[in-house]
Amino acid sequence: MKLFDVYPLYDVTPVSAKGIVVTDDKGQEYLDFYGGHAVISIGHSHPHYIKRLKDQLDKIGFYSNSVKNPLQEELADKLGRLSSCEDYNLFLCNSGAEANENALKMASFHTGKSRVIAFNNSFHGRTSAAVAATDNPKINAPINKQQKVTFLPFNDSDALEREIKKEDVCAVILEAVQGVGGLDQPSTAFYQLIEKLCKKHEVILIADEVQSGFGRTGKFFGFQHHGITPDIISIAKGMGNGFPVGGILIHEDIKASYGLLGTTFGGNHLACAATMAVLEVLEKERLIANAKHLEGYFRGLAAEIPQIKKVKGRGLMIGLEFDFEVADLRKRLIHNQYLFTGGAKDKYVLRVLPALNITERDLDSFFEGLKAELNGTP
Ligand SMILES: Cc1ncc(COP(=O)(O)O)c(C=O)c1O
Question: Is the pTM of this model over 0.90?
């Protein structure tokens, strides 16, 4: 059997990784400024993470959600405290798309309505309702196009008000900082208007923190830069540092009932252990503060490079805009400078999404490699 060929691959085969360094099958070391799509939050093979997972595996790796699993409560408690979201309840699942799928489903259950408002250039995943709320017709099959979704531009208050007033909207979903789209973010005033209109018209506000959550933007959640309270928050990616885990935080105003949501694998013992390890390291090593600090350092270094037109994003969810398409530059950064970076739907934006425990020295190395490549020196 062959693999279903849906991924264009770089010719690199990583076989081990530690911290920010990824080593391939030929012994070549790369610096990872992409974290495998913003997933590696506390660094590859963090010793505490390995220990937590190994210890858990020695006890019990999995049982279904038909029996008690105290690790889930421990996790909900710690996540609530560290994120300052203690008045939410936690539902655990396995990925970002699944988190958003459940968030949209809850919004529809709760309001009895079905139209969704999403934003231009959004990315929310590849499953049914999540992909329909993703602004990319190419990844929406006819079956997904049955969903009712209206896409609006960021910061268009009139359009938002006009659509919400139709009283058929169950949810507004948005990323605090757009990931795949290319690091755009709405204004605080627009965020607050969304919150106000959602409350007034009984619409659920979903903050998709799948990529921006778990400290990446310099606060635990990206929406916390804007002083608002979403009804549902979706999480995944950095949450498990590579272990597939996702979830939604549901405000306690929204009531649960048996059977409303469910999953076989979600919240299993290993997923909980991985997420607990991430939270413990984020707290102990003060990584959210580090992400915030390094944004300033990053912007300082970027300002010295004339080819960079704009720095976008927040914390260590950050991007560099050029006046040329960056696909070729990314390839050259991998093969000549041994640096992993990310692209975006906006082809002019190079995304940088490293683990939150990198150092100023790591950013120096990144900019040295970038400068060498931009100036054509080996
Ligand atoms: C903001 C956002 N939401 C949802 C998803 C989907 O997550 P997953 O690939 O885990 O399904 C992504 C993935 O890139 C994302 O960036």
Answer: yes
